[in-house]
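Board work, copied verbatim: Porin family protein
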Amino acid sequence: MKKLILGMALAAGSMAFAQTTTGMSSSSSPVQFGIKAGMNVSSLSKDASLQDQKSKIGFNAGLFAHIPLAESFSVQPEVLYSQYGAKVESINEATVLGTTTRTVDSYSTHLDYITVPVMFQYKFIPNFYVEAGPEFGFMVTAKDKGDRTVTTTSGSSTSTSSSSYSEDINKDNLNTFNFGLGLGAGYYFTDNFGITARYVAGLTDVAKNRPSGSDAIRNNVFQVGLAFKF
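↓ predict structure ↓
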């Protein structure tokens, strides 16, 4: 909760700075506020238990302030709701007293965050920019959704059952704060409407209190979307 409050304070401070800068900026380069939304293609870095993980599709949406610092440089703080996670397939098989049970779980791990990216942008031409900067994330929800198929074989007899499930992940076992670095670019077709693309590499282990010697699991996401400046 303290980290979430810190994130909201950071966002509020950025927006307050933007409002102050609005009064100081020249009319040729005013501070602009806007909205953006798009698609996330997210994954979790692999370790021994995630060999068959695949990317998951999600969305992001929120607000931003575009603050010019110089003719070609600007900073853009954002507040977004962003869906991270991955698709995973796990297979477990055990034989007890001649009976073999094979369990296949095909599920998506949903990790939803309030993220606060702070992107520093450089314009190569008036409508095209590149950007880089940190992203601070604060976990809102965590759950697994998917299908489970259990096949039991005993001698020549085989039975199969399938079910769907949705399970909350205990956030006490997760780091609810996520820190990443973003790198991206964007192009504005008009002064107000543009397309954006960004890759964010997570640096924080998703799991809390990981056993010594085991691999960290980190968020990774590619984002593409649309932005509109008011």
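The longest strand covers residues 99-125.
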